[in-house]
């Protein structure tokens, strides 16, 4: 039995990467029969439209398979949501066969081997790397009528916790670039490590290659969509993409190789 874990990689002549690893919504037909969640339930915890935001003209890695089949931003033992506490209290599977579970873990290992190879090649070619790791998060957990607690939920949470101190200049330039912009005519609230510090993929890359590069885990509050229905607000999505393009240009002006 084959099992598809789909992702696409676009290689550019750049030390920069844009990841959208939770954008995916696809479930392999071989496992769909065992899944208890419908599309709406899955979409709520996925990061839709991040692939569009990550179209930045640099190296790109976009995952097409849903995190509910295999979440490569978790440690391997948590990458398949077997228990409800791994999945926001949701029961994901109805007796998932061990053969499928093994294939998921094989796909996980293969993915990480490939990511290591991509980052290693970037370092060999450019001397360093910078990853824009694009995610989103929910701020209306009770209902879509719930008012957002803005002091506790910044518009943009920048996860930087696992980077080495030598990359502080890069982090600060990103923060300054975003703060110099506006979103729909208003100042942008971006803060570090409030909701998330960076996921496991970022930790893995930084543990192995952190001396030669950094990962900026960029979590957009789902202001660009109705997080309960999935309805997108296209003008906001476009502004977030422009925000990232502007920040990328600012970072490209830095002498990062000399850091």
UniProtKB/TrEMBL annotation:
SUPFAM superfamilies, per the entry: Zn-dependent exopeptidases (SSF53187)
Highest taxon, organism lineage: Bacteria
InterPro entries xref list: N-FG_amidohydro (IPR007709)
Gene3D superfamilies found in the cross-reference section: Zn-dependent exopeptidases
The protein's name in its UniProt record: N-formylglutamate amidohydrolase
Source species: Sphingobacterium arenae
Lineage start: Bacteria, Pseudomonadati, Bacteroidota, Sphingobacteriia, Sphingobacteriales
